[in-house]
Amino acid sequence: MATRKRFRAIFGFVSVIALLFLPGIARAQLQTLRIAIPQKGLFDTTMPTWVADKKGFLKDAGIKAEIFWSSGGAETVRVVTSGSADIGLATGTESVITAFLKGSAVRIISAEMTGSPDLFWLVRGDSPYKTLRDLDGKSIGFSRPGSSTHMVLQLAAEQFKIKPKLVPVGAPPDSYTALMTKQIEAGWASPPTFLDKVEKGEVRIVFRGAELEGVRGVTTRVNFVNADFYEKNQQLVKAYLSAIKKTIDAMYDNPKETVAIFAEINQVAPALAEAGFKFFPKEALALSPVSRVDFSVDLALKLKMIDKAPTAAELKKLILAE
């Protein structure tokens, strides 16, 4: 009887010690998730993962994020298909479809942007061009081939029946440099970049992606995963998406805090960050559904990115998003 009591006492003591150290054990068991994120500082690409990490949502999901910054488009696809990153964010839907059909081991795990409310194009303050139509035959910058800026610009040219010269310029700072040094007549941006310069009259907005009639309701950018990684880590990927959905809800439930973080990341005034935040309706960042894939397939065919449309079976294999 005494022996049994001593055993219970020892067992109870060990249990208390285990409980005290469980948080440390959990932290030690965090799994690293390598994430390729294009265009550091942009709201939809940067904020969800950044805030999820800051608020501890990723840690709660058992994830330690290792971030690779890219300039978007094909570069993000290469980083993931090469195995340097596990997940790629905010990449043109047609680019991921193209990579898949060309044999790359990629799978779409969620929508990232529906429509194109965030993108806009600028001209210099002293430019004679007032609208996108005025830029027929002129040089207009976009980020990288296969990016959503590339797609939106081509669709805009079609909508307004113009034939501009499309120039890949990289990230917004590179776009601005090319614009102000007159290498291009219009450059792209996304909030909050250069909204302060718009206020000062140094540059003017001549076109916003929100003006594109054809892409409303279309998932223009997606999040995708290396297929080999997904096969071995399905629960980890699902945990990441769950944390990001929770983060997006929190961001829109607490707009003042979101604006403050957005301002901090971009080192801009809160008023500028707030103006940028208004470009992004919550529904545009919904992770599901992946809408109007037919539109992205038709676009890839039109741009000669692919030779034939994927079959229903191929699309089912490619798109894992619920």
Topology:
Layout: H1 2-28, E1 31-38, H2 43-54, H3 57-60, E2 63-70, H4 74-81, E3 87-92, H5 93-101, E4 106-114, E5 120-124, E6 139-142, H6 148-159, E7 165-168, H7 172-180, E8 187-189, H8 195-199, E9 203-208, E10 219-226, H9 227-232, H10 234-253, H11 255-266, H12 270-277, H13 293-302, H14 312-318
Parallel strand pairs: 1-2, 1-3, 6-7
Antiparallel strand pairs: 3-10, 4-10, 5-8, 5-9
Domain tally: 2
Q: Output the CATH homologous superfamily of the largest domain.
A: Periplasmic binding protein-like II
Strand content: 15-25%
What is the rounded distance between the termini? 58 Å
Chain-averaged pLDDT: 91
Structural class: alpha/beta
Descriptive account of the structure:
With 322 residues, this protein is of the alpha/beta class. The chain is built from 14 helices and 10 strands. Strand 6 (139-142), helix 6 and strand 7 form a beta-alpha-beta unit. The longest helix has 27 residues, at 2-28. It is globular and about 55 Å long.
